[in-house]
Design brief:
Blueprint (H helix, E strand, L loop, with lengths): L6 H21 L6 E3 L8 E3 L3 H22 L7 H22 L3 H17 L5 H15 L2 H32 L1
Antiparallel strand pairs: 1-2
């Protein structure tokens, strides 16, 4: 097996391992948490047990994406076009989660508003962005709520960036 292809099958396994460690830690430290939207008990709640399904599934989709990117960038274990978005969105998600957890409301608000700018500037609809974001927020919010936010911002990003491309195309065609 070519070493550059070895990372793809390991992504869902690593995601499942991360989810198991997270659930085990919570189980032995007071019980597995349930998170509610807007931290209100009257809104729907999602157990962290869902992370055992969510993280490996998103990891599998990312593995497929890595496989296709490896075809374009030969010899790379995890191509920079995948690694940089995963790492960046992981850090972004972790900063947002940590600022919320530690009560840094200004940082949380700025990071949340920054998500709208990121959705405009970056193709956050790609799975590498979503995977890192979900992973970065898992310890604070579980996996389900970050998945919902990632899907909302992915949809926003897809349509805004598509509209921008169409607008730029229309402007270019009128100039010629």
């Amino acid at each position: 097996m070519n070493s550059s292809r070895a990372v793809s099958p390991l992504l869902p396994i690593a995601a499942l391992t991360f989810a198991i460690v997270h659930i085990a830690f919570e189980h032995f430290n007071g019980g597995v948490k349930t998170h509610h939207f807007l931290a209100r008990a009257d809104l729907p709640g999602f157990s962290n047990w869902l992370g055992l399904a969510i993280l490996p599934l998103v990891g599998m989709v990312l593995a497929v994406r890595v496989r296709s990117a490896q075809g374009a960038q030969k010899g790379s274990l995890l191509p920079p076009s995948i690694f940089i978005p995963v790492a960046g969105s992981l850090v972004y998600g972790a900063v947002l989660a940590a600022s919320f957890h530690f009560g840094a409301e200004q940082v949380s608000l700025a990071a949340f508003i920054g998500l709208f700018l990121c959705a405009l500037a970056l193709p956050v609809y790609r799975v590498e962005y979503m995977f890192g974001f979900i992973l970065g927020m898992t310890f604070t919010f579980g996996s389900a709520i970050p998945l919902v936010f990632a899907l909302v911002f992915a949809t926003l990003s897809f349509f805004l960036r598509g509209a921008a491309v169409m607008l730029m195309s229309a402007i270019r065609s009128r100039r010629m």
